[in-house]
Amino acid sequence: MIIPERSAAAPVQIILGNVEDDEVIFQRCLLLTGRCENLADDASDPSSTYILVRTLSSEGAELFPDQTWPLARGYFKALLFLSPGENTISLTLHTSSGVLSTTTLTLTYFPPLHAPPLQLAILVASDSPLLIDCPSTKSAGLCNAHSDLAAAIAKFRMTAYMWQAMTAEDMRQKGLGRRSFHLEEEWLPDTVSRTFVNKAAHGDLASREGGGVMRSTAKVNLVTATQTVRELRDPDVAQQNENGTRRDQLHSWFTDALAQAGGSLGLDARPVVAGLILDSHYDANSGLILAHAALGCRNDNGISLGVFGSHLTYSWPRFLEEVVPSLTDGRAPGTGVGNDAGDCLSMWEACCVGQGAFLHEAGHAFGSPHRSGIMERGYPVHWARNFLSSTSPSQARNEPGIPVVTADTPNDARWHILDALSFKYHMHFRQPMDPLYDSSVLSKMPDVKVMYANTGPYLQMSCEPLGLAIVEFQGTETLSDWKNPCKSCDWQLHELESMWSRDQALNVRVVGMNGVEKTLSNVWQLFPTGAVKVTGTDVLIGKASVASQELATRDDIPLWRWAVLFKQRTSSGGRRSLPNWAARNSVTDELVVSATSIDCRVGALLDGAVVGFQDGHKVPCGPRWDRDGHQHHFGGHRSEERSFAATTNITMIEVSAANGGLDALRVHSSDGQTWGCLSEQEQSETTSLEAGPPDRIIGFFGCNEYSNGSYFRTMEFGILTLNKDVDIPDQAFDMEELRNTDGGCGERPNGDHEDGNEWV
């Protein structure tokens, strides 16, 4: 970090770092950052140096109570609450020498009523005492100011606004524009300023000081559980209890309570909810935090919910004036409250863990998985850096505080870029001028495929219509521009070969502007791996496949190799005599029949496939019999079969791989059908195989592990291609490498079996 040089003679100026005059804002709570240029070091005494923030209407009326914010070596951060319409923001630098500088800007706030809000809800037990855990050192233990239901509501409201401000600033810093979710608001006595709370306590709700106590502020819904406190605090449902057998139950109970409440919280509304469990409690005898779960999940067809216990809520600020004290309080919470994950040895660290971990669960409700940043416990200690110009020492990590916090300061309490990209087009983050996209666009995976031109094959990556954000080869970014995304990018085969050897797998990672990523462990597999020259002709049949990692690294696996052409030759006499719709070879008096069905056989892994033909016979994409000669029967609880006309072409297949093995198959046909399935594994990659022009897919090929037993996993699955203008030569039907006969494993053991004549 570079501290600007200061000239003693130059006037002190307040320089704002993240907002422009006359900017339009679509969130109520805004994080403001800046610095005081040319401020002498001795003028930064925190006891006498601060920034005073005033918020006025265009007519000069006060819209929000005045707030003060500390400086650290001339840098400051401040949270603003805006009122609908025009807000005149005045920032004044006060020091022991008096007022040194003032700056003013105008911000216009439009409440984003066009987008669905993040809902806030508190689950209350049917017999709840309406109190939360709180150390005796809070409020000197003389009142319930930090532990009653009103305090929990105020702290939750203030925390949610902090989430909103942090998210918007993080999105802005990432170059995706200032955007965030908004909160459902209603007209009631506000609690986001101490002034409002004090006025309300004295019954002065009609006061207009600070813009008035009554205003639109975040609604915190109270939902009643059917369970009692004892049931909620059952150790068997405590998520942190390793011996618990129902550790997801609290999330289910919360979901049930929301569904029962109905309205904007119900199933039909499909809300995204951040849910606080009021009756959480630390049990010192067992060392468990009871009635607490840190769980979240997205449900596009119902309630998306992230839940968290109230056991750290005592440390959160109730209103704006408590933000800095709450995030700098170095006092120990004591042994009477839970030390969540061992990170809560001071009040401010408890605040970081509580607010950050709760946002983590809300992130799951928005659809974000575990990955670095907020979604991978980046919030202990670092959470405070989002709101402070300097931080306190960490007791849990025995680390000093950060004297100056800027945008360049390391901070893991931010969203991962993939989260930010997905938020940009999420309906809860929409801004009025944003286009509306179908859900299929928002979930669309980037395309990575081989195309063909006069210059030869090339690799094309695209993500229509939003564009590409990131492309990485071997972990090195070759494209990283989400501010100006391109629709597609191409790499010629010879370019790739000049940079990387084909003897080693070439990993590629592609991220669309929707935040969806696709990773291929070996992009070389997309290019034709070779060709089969048809005997006695100049015809070449191309091959491209996806193989398991083991196939490339081990040579001791017994294999059954197979190929299935989508046209098969069969005798015109006997049991397969066909009507006039079959093609007849006038020389050999044999018939050529076409494929009319494909059965994708998928279970926990990819078993293979079965191709059916016009005359009713079937050929497996995999072993025909086991080691004992018994016919092999394909399993697969996720299998799917489709029929199609003999004139239909297979246009593309998708093969999924997870944990090094192939585990799913999906087929696309020219009549618009898609069937089969893709991987259900979280860490999986899917490769698309299709014929480049001027070719077409004429069959499948591959191999299966062929060991003892009855299950033979697919090790390789690929496509056979041929020029569209070339018919399959007759000689091809007799070539062993284009058929599925004995798999290269020799004659069938013990001759024919009674169960063994289905595969032909």
TrEMBL record:
<dbReference type="InterPro" id="IPR021917">
    <property type="entry name" value="Unchr_Zn-peptidase-like"/>
</dbReference>
<dbReference type="InterPro" id="IPR053002">
    <property type="entry name" value="Metalloproteinase_M10B"/>
</dbReference>
<dbReference type="Pfam" id="PF12044">
    <property type="entry name" value="Metallopep"/>
</dbReference>
<protein>
    <recommendedName>
        <fullName>Jacalin-type lectin domain-containing protein</fullName>
    </recommendedName>
</protein>
<feature type="region of interest" description="Disordered">
    <location>
        <begin position="738"/>
        <end position="760"/>
    </location>
</feature>
<dbReference type="GO" id="GO:0005737">
    <property type="term" value="C:cytoplasm"/>
</dbReference>
<feature type="compositionally biased region" description="Basic and acidic residues">
    <location>
        <begin position="749"/>
        <end position="760"/>
    </location>
</feature>
